[in-house]
Amino acid sequence: MTLGGEDDQTAPSPRPQSLMFSFLGIYVLHRGVAVYSGSVIDVFARLGVSEEAVRSTLARMAKRNLLTRHRQGRKVYFGLTPHAVEVLEDGRRRVWETGAVNRDWDGTWTVVGFSIPDSHRSLRHDLRSQLIWNGFGLLQSGLWIAPGARDVSGVLASLDLGDHVTVLTAKAFAPTEAADLVGKAFDVEQIAARYRAFLAQWDAPRPLPGAPDDLARQLLLHTDWLQLVRQDPHLPAELLPRDWPAIQAEQTFQALAQRYEPPACGLAAAVLDTLPV
Fold it and tell me: Which pTM value belongs to this model?
């Protein structure tokens, strides 16, 4: 089955685990239920995901303390662990509260500086990965910045970095310009290209005509958008071009999410077998 847009019939499909996070966030989070694995398989079949891939994804997520199993007779139901609720809540906030356009920047930057010896190279790699995930860009060797106040205490605590790291809040002063910091620390064109790719896929009269129904479109839409905003460092709008594509992309997402919700929820209610937990 092809799920590409009207002009793109070769768009790559999201990974099953990414789709699973979207599914769980929409149909399981805060509902007090576990969902039967067989009905999850039925939903994912609409997306062209095989039964084997769904079972493998559920098993991996259970092993990673994201899902918990509940048995009723011969049926196995999957519910959320507290860790999964945390992860899904973070995704919900990024989509519906933080958004894609930062119009509330107060002019400050969170600055993280570190000096980690070569003997702890893997620790240095982990810290860099976590900083990128939390919206930081590399300004110069060992110095990372992110707009606004960013709480990195959880990241630092999990890595046990001790005195190797310094965290500050700062403002740019002449001759340094805030716009120059953005250009040095972040690949603005790459960020914009991701939003343009989203618009090419979804800003169409009939997005994804190859999808079987609006439940499939809803899950693909939410998955694409969440992956996009998770990669976005949320740079201040005032430091970006006036035609920044995130603005139109966010409007497109919100309009389609509203359009797909009623029919998708009706289809899901007819398919999903849930167990109160």
Answer: 0.89
Q: Is 261 helix (H, G, I), strand (E, B) or coil?
A: helix
pLDDT digit string, tens, across residues 92-109: 999 999 889 999 999 999
Q: Which CATH architecture has domain 109-171?
A: 2-Layer Sandwich (3.30)
Tens-place pLDDT, residues 188-215: 999 999 999 999 999 999 999 999 999 9
CB 61 within 8 A of CB 19: no
Query: What are residue 77's DSSP bridge partners?
Result: 36, 70
Q: Write out the DSSP string of 163-229.
A: GGEEEEEE---TT--HHHHHHHHS-HHHHHHHHHHHHHHHSSSSS-TTSSSHHHHHHHHHHHHHHHH
Are the C-beta atoms of 78 and 37 separated by less than 8 Å? yes
CATH of 1-101+176-277, one of 1.10.1200.120, 1.10.10.10, 1.10.1040.10, 3.30.420.10: 1.10.10.10
Nearest to 220 by CA among 2, 38, 13, 7: 13
Per-residue confidence at 10, pLDDT binned at 50, 70, 90? Answer: very low
Q: Where in the chain is the domain with CATH 3.30.70.2360?
A: 109-171
For 207, what's the count of Cα atoms within 13 Å in the CB-facing half-sphere?
25
